[in-house]
DNA sequence: GAGTTTGAAACT
DNA sequence: CAGTTTCAAACTC
């Protein structure tokens, strides 16, 4: 909002230059050839952007910034196709169909985002995105190899698909692509970690520099909403969010990841300059730079990773990879099982390790990621759920596995946050933090984010188990006993999960819903409820005054809401009565400190400093803070200065209950009842209301809801946030199930 | 690291 | 739905 494009550009340019200079950058360059291509793309994109100017219609300052962000993404998208291979498909499409294409692309959101349901007659445009993805997959087959014993499979099919582009095959290709994407994302994460280790401070610096660029992300989503293109971005975002949620150390990495992801998506999506021109506004340049950087970095990182994996093919690595994957998978596993999206590839999930580890992983992981993304970014992502590169894939799966998706709550970031960190942690372990020391250090930082349980009697099959509750398999770091929450007991896990879900459909849904982003984003300056996030169910604290982690609201970094039955609520993020922290009686130095740390983090993030890792934030607190930034982070940061600045996570709380009842975005959060049926969410979210409902301004008024009605609300919120979130359902619906 | 506190989850 | 028990995280020492 406040950020000016010029500034951004300046920052970006600066960061860029720094990037290039940095050792890390050099290293990355050396690693991957891809980068060059990307840069080229970016250049192209840049050009395309140059002529495009945002329509006056969208003129609100906020929108502009957002658009700019989006432009960033868009740019990337365009470039992507070129990078990997300007080859055949590319040639066809790339040529300049310009605006018309862009328009089509927007319509094609489904394709772009996820795995397009196979359309009877894929247009050239449609084919392009897929092809592009395929190309990517082809280019980086190694990663897949690493995990899967039979990497060829995945790869080959893609090629075939590409060539043939038969509608039927397209689906498969999409699936594969999805898998690839998911894996790619994972790898990215890994690489980020590695690079971080290698680069050390340099990397961090780079990241910090790029932080600003990342901030644009938030805006991206909204913008995209207008054009269905959002889907990709959301995915990216979701992915990013996951990454971002990583512990302090990785905060930087995360950010990079975000930017990177966005870039990828953008490239994929936007395929055409023309489209960009339309969408993008002023910031083209600024966006572009970051995009390039991120893109290049990412690519390189990916390459490295891939190489590493390939090299390591050794069992050890493989196993580690598997574990990592599994973790990701678990959440979706159930759903997948129900409906195997990628049946071809999958052998039994469990057995799959050997066979198509990658495939499995990808399958599950992808869905999981998508889910996460949804949750995480919350509302934003819900509809999209894609990984950076998985946009398409995710989509496809989503659509195909509606039920599954439905099961998963789309709301909160909790999961995202939590999950992402986990993933990261796992990845780190596997990626190879060489020195135990480093490893330990990393883990510690990530610790908060990572889920590790210590269950002794629940066998990790109850919600008591954090891992299980998060839809994750327990892994090494866990100290659980008699753990059944492992791939080996998948059946049991799924069954148990089913039971729990039958009892409470939202049992595995994120507990905290964050809507702040939207509000701020939508730009109501008047509306200053930065942290509109709320705990779905509310807490029931009696002795902790909601000032300790015992309180789920506090733990989630959100204020208490009217839904809370807490006594003596002093939640620093906001009391259920809407009292401001300032109003709170002093005394909670501890809390205040924590809060302060959060604020600091937020501020930093906003300012682009972001070094969450360095911040002395309690693990959990850190997580929250990080999450928030992430959630809001890219997106909100700017729009939500209040968050950090105010030092109040949830200004909304100040408003008190009224806020919730108000038909504003914030309201959604609270309104969303736990009970929302996931299915409803899934189905409802998507289409119709979603984008449409959103007002041009992006502001949406949602009637006060309670209970599932909230689902509707939820949608509203999402829609509002996403603005133009493409109706996934419609796209997917045909095929799926 | 052991013990206590706390509140969610599970059970009745 | 309310009350109780179980559980594991959070916290304290």
UniProtKB/TrEMBL annotation:
Membrane among keywords: no
Tagged with keyword Metal-binding: no
Cellular compartment(s): Nucleus
Coiled coil: none
InterPro entries membership: CRC, Tesmin/TSO1-like_CXC, TSO1-like
Compositional bias (Polar residues): 680-696
Disordered: annotated segments: 69-101, 678-708
Annotated ranges, domain CRC: 449-574
Matches recorded under Pfam families: TCR
Keywords for the protein's UniProt record, in alphabetical order: Nucleus
Similarity comment: Belongs to the lin-54 family.
The protein, known as: CRC domain-containing protein
Native organism: Hevea brasiliensis
């Amino acid at each position: 909002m406040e950020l000016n494009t010029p500034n951004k550009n300046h920052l970006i340019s600066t960061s860029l230059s720094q990037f290039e200079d940095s050792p890390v950058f050099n290293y990355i360059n050396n690693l991957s050839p891809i980068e060059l291509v990307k840069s080229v793309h970016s250049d192209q994109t840049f050009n395309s952007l140059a002529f495009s100017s945002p329509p006056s219609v969208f003129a609100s300052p906020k929108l502009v910034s957002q658009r700019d962000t989006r432009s960033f993404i868009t740019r990337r998208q365009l470039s992507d196709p070129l990078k990997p291979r300007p080859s055949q498909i590319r040639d066809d499409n790339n040529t300049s169909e310009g605006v018309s294409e862009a328009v089509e692309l927007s319509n094609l959101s489904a394709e772009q985002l996820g795995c397009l349901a196979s359309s009877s007659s894929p247009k050239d445009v449609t084919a392009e995105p897929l092809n592009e993805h395929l190309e990517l997959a082809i280019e980086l087959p190694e990663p897949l190899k690493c995990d899967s014993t039979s990497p060829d499979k995945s790869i080959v099919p893609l090629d075939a698909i590409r060539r043939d582009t038969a509608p039927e095959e397209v689906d498969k290709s999409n699936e594969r692509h999805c898998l690839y994407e998911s894996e790619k994302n994972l790898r990215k994460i890994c690489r980020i970690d590695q690079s971080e280790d290698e680069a050390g401070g340099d990397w961090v610096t780079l990241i910090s520099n790029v932080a600003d660029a990342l901030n644009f992300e938030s805006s991206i989503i909204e913008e995209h909403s207008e054009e269905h293109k959002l889907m990709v971005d959301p995915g990216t975002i979701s992915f990013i969010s996951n990454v971002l949620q990583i512990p302090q150390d990785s905060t930087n990495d995360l950010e990079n990841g975000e930017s990177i992801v966005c870039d990828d998506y953008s490239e994929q999506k936007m395929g055409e300059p023309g489209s960009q021109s339309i969408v993008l506004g002023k910031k083209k340049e600024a966006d572009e730079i970051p995009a390039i950087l991120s893109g290049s970095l990412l690519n390189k990182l990916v390459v490295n990773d891939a190489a590493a994996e390939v090299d390591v093919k050794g069992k050890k690595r493989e196993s580690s990879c598997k574990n990592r994957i599994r973790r990701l998978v678990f959440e979706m596993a159930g759903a997948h099982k129900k409906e195997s999206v990628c049946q071809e590839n999958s052998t039994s999930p469990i057995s799959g390790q050997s066979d198509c580890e990658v495939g499995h992983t990808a399958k599950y992981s992808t869905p999981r990621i998508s889910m996460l993304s949804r949750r995480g970014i919350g509302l934003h992502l819900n509809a999209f759920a894609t990984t950076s590169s998985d946009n398409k894939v995710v989509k496809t799966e989503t659509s195909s596995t509606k039920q599954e998706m439905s099961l998963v709550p789309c709301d909160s970031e909790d999961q995202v946050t939590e999950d992402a960190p986990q993933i990261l942690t796992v990845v780190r372990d596997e990626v190879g933090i060489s020195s135990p020391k480093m490893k330990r250090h990393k883990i510690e930082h990530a610790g908060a984010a990572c889920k590790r349980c210590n269950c002794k009697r629940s066998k990790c099959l109850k919600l008591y188990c954090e891992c299980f509750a998060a839809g994750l398999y327990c892994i090494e770091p866990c100290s659980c006993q008699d753990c059944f929450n492992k791939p080996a007991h998948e059946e049991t896990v799924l069954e148990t999960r089913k039971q729990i879900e039958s009892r409470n459909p939202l049992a595995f849904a994120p507990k905290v819903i964050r809507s702040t982003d939207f509000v701020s984003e939508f730009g109501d300056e008047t509306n200053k409820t930065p942290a509109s996030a709320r705990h779905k169910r509310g807490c029931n604290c009696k002795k902790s005054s909601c000032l300790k982690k015992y309180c789920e609201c506090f733990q989630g970094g959100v204020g208490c809401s009217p839904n809370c039955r807490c006594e003596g609520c002093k939640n620093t993020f906001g009391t259920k009565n809407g009292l401001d922290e300032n109003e709170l009686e002093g005394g909670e130095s501890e809390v205040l400190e924590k809060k302060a740390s959060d604020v600091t983090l937020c501020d930093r993030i906003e300012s682009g400093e972001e070094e969450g890792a360095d911040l002395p934030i309690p693990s959990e607190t850190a997580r929250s803070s990080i999450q928030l930034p992430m959630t809001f982070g890219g997106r909100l940061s700017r729009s939500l200065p209040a968050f950090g600045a105010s030092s109040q996570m949830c200004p909304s709380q100040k408003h008190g209950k009224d806020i919730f009842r108000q038909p504003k975005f914030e309201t959604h959060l609270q309104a969303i009842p736990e009970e929302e049926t996931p299915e409803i969410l899934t189905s409802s979210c998507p289409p119709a209301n979603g984008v449409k409902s959103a007002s041009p301004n992006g502001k949406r008024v949602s009637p006060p809801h309670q209970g599932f009605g909230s689902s509707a609300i939820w949608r509203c919120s999402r829609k509002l946030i996403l603005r133009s979130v493409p109706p996934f359902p419609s796209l997917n619906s045909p095929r799926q199930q």
